[in-house]
Design brief:
The relative contact order is 0.05. By secondary structure, the chain is of the alpha/beta class.
């Protein structure tokens, strides 16, 4: 606390007057007495307050002495500075009074010879001085360093010293340097070109050091190159070449653009056509990754004029075309930005003036007098700090009170008053910011409920600004539905609240984040064990078990391992954990994922009954949001806009939000590649994947998960698989696709069949590739012409018993024994395949072809399946070109933004975007069957509509596990209901039971007798067939099969007379006319007239090849390769 003037005089008398101490300091001939006197002077200032520096003329006298021609005076002054910095500096708030001395200290670096001690003292004091300023005031110190660096009046040692000190700020004030990097680095160009080698070397090192603040890994390897270009313009072409060939995938932030900007300007001004082309390509790549339109608008004026000049004057059309692309990329990046572009650093100058004026007014009100000139030096520093903190929206109270405001005031008024004023200044600027960025929230004034949170904030993820100067306002007991497109930051906001990353979020609010799955490291313990080990749960075991029972966990299920639970039951575990924490705020991220209808209803009732718990809900389930939400929070232009009522009322006020209720492709369109052909399969309704009487029991389970299950899939199948949580839906799919083997029964599939399976927890497909972009991931996965993910499946690993088969001798016809090493080839043989076998210890000339059936009998089913899958994958993906352009187009076809697909790492994508990547990767090989397990969990309404329309237009088979009745009902006429281990068929089955033409061994496979197809006309009709309109097989699918036994048998197609050339022309013309008639039919839902070879009348003519008739007179479908 400052002391009174009388007390100050007394202290001066007791310890010696400052003038006497100064005289003694200057007269000291040796270092020891000089340091002792300087320490006394520092103690005097510390005891009498900072104002004593001005009252006793200490600052003025030291400033004179440091420039004196007398060495003792210079050294004495520098020693005094050093002691003041060390002893008074820790009190805080003294740096504004001493920073202007820095050029004088650096000027003493030139001392040498007998005055070498002066240089040493100056170096020591200068290093102490630059440590005094807190980070936000570092720019003031750096400006003093540039006074020396840019001036011609300082010697080379002074400049080298200034450059070395400048380098230290890349660590002590990293953020502040990064913000001004575009200003600092170009100002070093003159020093880099200095003829004095020491100066140019130090300048280059300083430039590289400052550029180390860059956080973009894509540009970090090029920092030395960029710095070198500023010193040597002849290196620009080589630098442009290197940067233009780099793969840019990270978000481009302000510091990166600031450093690369000068190089781009020089590249645009180069005369060489190659450099011009590479420069405009580099501009295109960079601005595509600038996600902040304001940032792009700030830097666009530096490049647009040069790009437009190249468009007008470039000699080659190719260069002009690249320049056009660059211009489009820049204009797209600045779309929606403020005009003129906002430079927030310049904008803060007005806040600095306002803060200075406000501080003077507050102090005059507090003390009754206007602050004098000496006090105003401190106020100017405070005003600068306030303007920077406000610009960054940093309102952390300890930072204002303990670092940037109160310490500077405490040198002139009491500590208590200075802290109170610091809090008052912070409060005033918070109100100014709130008024400055206030947005229309659409929230009525009569809203009821206690406000538990009302604070301004911004939210960013990496270099992407998600929310800008918006307000988070929550009321107790309200349930807020968070609505917005995929990638807008809904889940990021919930996670930021849970991790306490929202600045000034009320510390007393207890929040729990509930996502679609529990953490993987918790999966090895039981359900009750997880609750007991959770430190945030204070309940005892009795209360835990009671809560679990309330959520549907029977006593025996409470003690099972979490790893054995289905996705739906894991979700209930996460919900129960949040309930037992007894929180104030529930953060629910897709809470209905994996939940069956009964569980969703229970969750709705539970949330609606909570009058003291506030909920923030991210969900793509429109029905759920309608049932529980009291408010909707909409992401709109990086703002949170609030609406009262549920989703239906929100849509009434915003008709454009109807996409939350409809499945349409008006916003997002999915387009899948056509499925590849299957050898021998000419009918859309022929079974290509089939399971017969399969039973499966999990290890340790008391009863089978699935029992006597039979089902079949054809190319025209559209199957919805439904049932309660844990019933075995995902297990059924794993059995069908071969990922799990049944205990009994058979699973058969066409040898060349390709299945795209997107699992329930889809992200496991890309967990090990988060550093890749979506495009790079697909290129890696299929770069060898086949699907690496499929080859790496755990189910492909051989068991010890299967490995022993390779050591089992195989006896040939001549009695020789050989051991199989691997399968190296495959070829068609009649209705089956033979496989080329490589023998252990023998070269390839000894290879032989063994029939599929023989290898199956020997136990090599998994080896055969692996090779079949490899060949099928090669057939689908091996013929596709893996260029970046085509992969990007493929990803765009599933609704992923092309720039995100090509430039953004997978780790930065939202859940919905990751699902699109997984679907696109699975569809690259042109599969014939697409299986989606809970596809609606992460896709928003627009993407869900695009997916639904894309599947409708796709010609392959589709199977879907989902609790979303709207999605299943829109796509799937056939339903497989799995409950209590039993599969029940409902609806229309688009499959003719039987065998694959190329695999006669599957002829015996039929559905189990205990699984009748509901909706069929009678016991004699195995299925009511259904195919997509226009597939060409409607006539076959519509025919009723009569007079057949439980086991289907069909007549072989034989005796068919070959058509003449004229008849074939007539047939092609009839088919063409049918196609034209169908395409020109404007009636919604019109069905295409089928192409058929029956003896019905077509265009007034009879076909000459009669079909075989059954005894009952109905036509029997013929499956080639099957015997009667």
């Amino acid at each position: 606390m400052p002391i009174a003037l009388d007390d100050m005089t007394t202290a001066a008398t007791e310890t010696g007057s400052p003038s006497a101490l100064l005289q003694e300091l200057y007269a000291a001939a040796k270092p020891q007495p000089r340091v002792a006197t300087a320490a006394k002077l520092a103690d005097f200032v510390k005891a009498n307050g900072l104002r004593s520096l001005a009252l006793h003329g200490i600052l003025d006298d030291l400033s004179r002495a440091i420039k004196s021609k007398v060495q003792a005076e210079r050294e004495g002054a520098i020693t005094a500075y050093d002691e003041l910095f060390r002893k008074v500096g820790p009190l805080g708030g003294i740096d504004p009074f001493f920073v202007p001395v820095l050029p004088d200290l650096l000027d003493r670096y030139q001392e040498s010879g007998k005055a070498e001690s002066v240089k040493t003292a100056a170096e020591k004091a200068a290093k102490q001085l630059i440590r005094l300023s807190p980070p936000e005031l570092a720019p003031k110190v750096i400006e003093q360093l540039f006074v020396v660096i840019e001036s011609n009046s300082y010697k080379w040692r002074s400049k080298v010293g200034a450059l070395e000190l400048l380098s230290t700020f890349s660590t002590s004030a990293k953020d502040q340097v990064a913000e001004r990097l575009g200003d600092y680095v170009p100002r070093l160009a003159g020093a880099m070109r200095d003829t004095k080698a020491e100066i140019s070397s130090a300048a280059n090192k300083a430039g590289i050091s400052l550029c180390n603040v860059l956080t973009n890994p894509d540009v970090q390897p090029f920092v030395p190159t960029l710095v070198k270009c500023m010193a040597d313009p002849t290196t620009v072409p080589e630098a442009i070449k290197r940067l233009s060939s780099n793969v840019w995938v990270r978000e481009i932030d302000g510091p990166t653009l600031a450093v690369v900007g000068p190089l781009l300007i020089r590249g645009l001004n180069e005369r060489g056509t190659t450099v011009q082309r590479q420069t405009v390509i580099l501009i295109t790549n960079l601005f595509k990754l600038v996600r902040s339109n304001d940032l792009a608008a700030l830097h666009s004026p530096t490049v647009l004029p040069g790009v437009e000049r190249i468009i007008e004057s470039a000699a080659f059309p190719e260069i002009r075309a690249f320049a056009e692309q660059a211009k489009e990329a820049v204009l797209a990046a600045i779309e929606g930005a403020a005009v003129p572009a906002v430079d927030h650093l310049t904008e803060s100058l007005e806040d600095e003036k306002a803060a200075f004026k406000d501080l003077n007014a507050l102090l005059e009100k507090e003390t009754g007098t206007q602050p004098d000139a000496f006090f105003q030096i401190a106020l100017q520093a405070i005003a600068f700090s306030v303007s920077q903190l406000v610009r960054k929206r940093s309102f952390n109270e300890p930072e204002w009170k303990n670092t940037y405001v109160a310490p500077y005031l405490a040198n002139f008024i009491s500590k208590e008053k200075s802290e109170a004023l610091a809090i008052e200044v912070r409060k005033r600027w918070m109100e100014i910011e709130k008024a400055r960025f206030k947005t229309e929230t659409h929230e009525e004034d009569d809203e009821e409920g206690e406000i538990i949170c009302d604070l301004p904030f911004s939210l960013a993820y990496g270099g992407l600004l998600l929310l800008n100067h918006t307000t988070l306002k929550l009321r107790r007991g309200h349930r807020y539905g968070m609505c917005g497109t995929n990638g807008c930051g809904k889940s990021t906001l919930l996670k930021a609240i849970n991790r306490k990353q929202i600045e000034n979020f009320p510390s007393e609010l207890k929040a729990a984040y509930v996502e679609h799955d529990i953490d993987g490291d918790e999966s090895g313990i039981t359900v009750v064990g997880l609750m007991l080990e959770e430190p945030r749960i204070k309940a005892d075991e009795t209360e835990i078990r009671a809560t679990l029972l309330e959520l549907g966990f029977e006593p025996e299920r409470q003690d099972v391992a979490i790893m054995s639970l289905s996705g739906g039951w894991k979700m209930r575990v996460a919900l129960c954990r949040a309930m037992l924490m007894k929180v104030d705020l529930l953060l629910l991220d897709e809470p209905t994922n994996h939940l069956d209808t009964k569980s969703v209803n229970w969750l709705q009732d539970y949330l609606n009954a909570q009058s003291h718990i506030t909920s923030m809900i991210v969900s793509h389930d429109s029905g759920f949001l309608d049932a529980v939400c009291t408010n909707i929070v909409h992401y709109q232009k990086k703002q949170l806009v609030y609406y009262q009522g549920n989703l239906a009322k929100f849509v009434e006020k915003n008709p454009a939000a109807k996409s939350y209720y409809t499945l349409s492709s008006s916003v997002v369109k999915f387009t899948f590649p056509p499925p590849g052909s299957l050898m021998g399969v000419r009918s859309q309704t022929r079974a290509i994947l089939k399971m017969s009487n399969a039973t499966f029991t999990y290890p340790g389970a008391k009863k089978p998960q699935l029992q006597n299950v039979s089902c079949a899939v054809s190319l025209s199948s559209r199957v919805g698989i439904v049932g309660p949580n844990g019933a075995g839906k995902s297990t059924l799919i794993k059995l069908l696709t071969g990922e799990t083997l049944p205990d009994s029964g058979r699973v058969e599939k066409h040898p060349n069949l390709r299945v795209a399976y997107v699992a329930q927890h889809a992200f496991h497909h890309i967990e090990e590739h988060l550093e890749k972009t979506a495009s790079q991931y697909i290129q890696w996965r299929y770069q060898d012409g086949h699907d690496k993910e499929q080859a790496a499946k755990a189910t492909r690993a051989l068991t010890p018993e299967e490995k022993k088969l390779f050591d089992t001798p195989i006896v040939g016809k001549n009695g020789q024994t050989r051991k199989l090493e691997r399968i190296v080839g495959r070829q068609k043989l009649k209705k089956s395949y033979t496989y080329e076998v490589k023998w252990q210890g023998l070269d390839h000339r000894q290879n032989v072809h063994l029939p599929r059936e023989q290898l199956m009998e020997l136990g090599f089913q998994k080896i055969i399946q692996e090779y079949d899958d490899l060949e099928a994958s090669r057939e689908g993906s091996g013929s596709r070109e893996m260029s970046a352009k085509l992969v990007r187009k493929h990803l765009e076809d599933v609704g992923l933004d092309g720039d995100i697909a090509e430039y953004n790492e997978l780790r930065g994508l939202s859940g919905g975007q990751k699902v699109k990547v997984v679907i696109a990767a699975a569809m690259w090989s042109k599969p014939q069957v697409l299986i989606l397990d809970e596809p609606t969990n992460f896709l928003d309404r627009d993407a869900l509509g695009g997916l639904a329309v894309g599947i409708k237009e796709w010609a392959g088979a589709f199977l879907c596990i989902s609790h979303n009745q709207e999605f299943v009902g829109a796509l799937c006429p056939e339903i497989w209901n799995v409950e209590a281990g039993v599969l029940t068929h409902k609806g229309k089955a688009a499959v003719v039971e039987g065998a694959f033409e190329s695999n006669p061994a599957s002829a015996a496979g039929t559905p189990a007798a205990g699984t009748p197809l509901a909706g069929t006309p009678g016991a004699s009709t195995p299925a009511a067939l259904s195919t997509p309109a226009g597939s060409g097989d409607e006539a076959l699918a519509a025919q009723t099969l009569e007079g057949v036994d439980e086991k289907l048998s069909f007549k072989a197609a034989k005796g068919r007379k070959k058509l003449t050339r004229k008849q074939m022309k007539e047939r092609e013309e009839r088919r063409r006319l049918r196609t034209v008639a169908f395409l020109s039919n404007s009636i919604p839902g019109a069905v295409r007239e089928p192409d058929t070879e029956s003896d019905e009348e077509v265009d007034g003519k009879k076909l000459r090849i009669p079909s075989k008739l059954t005894k009952s007179g109905t036509t029997t479908p013929v499956l080639a390769g099957m015997k009667h």
